[in-house]
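Hypothesis: this fold can be encoded by more than one sequence.
Test: take the structure tokens below, design a sequence, compare later.
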């Protein structure tokens, strides 16, 4: 059974992007052959696409073009996996449904780091072929926000991880850098008067966390996964009680060799995080774990 025949009972707004674009291109092609709109409509129906006559009319007359709402990816390069990493780290994506119709797909990025939000706004615009970055704004004096609409990217991100790997594996290093830029943090453990740097990644998607762990292992970086916050736990945020919806997990790189490899192969692209990680590693390389702790206590307030 063809993919068209399997979708005969669906509305156009529910079709995957490839099907919508193919329907539009087919309609324009038939129009150039001077076929009547009714004939074009019947031809597409025979191929399994039940498109509204009114929608087809706006296509043929050039009033509407599906590409405008779909906002398709123009650059499938090594920066795309980095963008995917950012989205999985600090974004939400969803379909905009109005009056029962799938109007748009929206991706919203939120971070306390202005530099990171600017990277997201610039890279997402370039990926979609825009000349200027998307706008960013400060919300409630705490978070920098940037967002854009793209049905294609929302549908792409909604695919199972097994399908997303086709894009991620274009550049696993850039994907890891993106997700650690968004959700990674640098900490330190003080034990037996010694300093041990650690890199954390927190996420509620257990499949994603395990995938990141496997990717790190391919680069010789060992990590562990631990539970962070269980679903249903009550927290007080801004004087309001709220419950966590999903269980969160911590991926932790806690051995010094793993931290060094992370810095040399992946690293953060955000200056603030780069400087913190570099300072910790340089202190240990120069003084050893014990004296490094004393030095760290002297300078940590400056970072």
């Amino acid at each position: 059974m063809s993919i068209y025949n399997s979708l005969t009972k669906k509305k156009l707004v529910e079709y995957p992007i490839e099907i919508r674009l193919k329907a539009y291109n087919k309609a324009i092609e038939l129009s150039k052959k001077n076929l009547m709109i009714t004939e074009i409509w019947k031809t597409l129906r025979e191929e399994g696409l039940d498109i509204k006559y009114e929608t087809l009319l706006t296509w043929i007359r050039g009033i509407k073009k599906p590409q405008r709402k779909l906002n398709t990816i123009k650059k499938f390069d090594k920066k795309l996996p980095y963008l995917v990493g950012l989205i999985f780290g600090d974004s939400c994506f969803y379909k905009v449904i109005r009056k029962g119709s799938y109007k748009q797909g929206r991706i919203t990025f939120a971070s306390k780091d202005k530099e990171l939000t600017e990277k997201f706004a610039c890279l997402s615009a370039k990926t979609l072929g825009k000349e200027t970055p998307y706008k960013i704004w400060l919300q409630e004096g705490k978070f920098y926000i940037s967002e854009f609409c793209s049905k294609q990217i929302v549908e792409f991100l909604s695919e199972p991880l097994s399908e997303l790997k086709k894009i991620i594996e274009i550049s696993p290093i850039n994907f890891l850098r993106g997700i650690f830029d968004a959700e990674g943090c640098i900490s330190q453990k003080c034990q037996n008067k010694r300093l041990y740097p650690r890199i954390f990644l927190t996420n509620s998607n257990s499949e994603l966390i395990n995938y990141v762990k496997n990717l790190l292992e391919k680069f010789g970086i060992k990590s562990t996964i631990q539970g962070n916050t269980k679903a249903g736990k009550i927290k007080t945020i801004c004087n309001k009680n709220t419950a966590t919806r999903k269980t969160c997990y911590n991926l932790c790189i806690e051995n010094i060799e793993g931290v060094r490899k992370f810095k040399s192969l992946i690293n953060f692209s955000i200056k603030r995080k780069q400087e913190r990680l570099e300072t910790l590693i340089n202190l240990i390389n120069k003084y050893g774990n014990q004296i490094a702790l004393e030095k760290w206590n002297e300078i940590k307030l400056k970072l």
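The first strand starts at residue 91 and ends at 98. Residues 271-299 form the longest helix (29 residues).
Hypothesis status: open.
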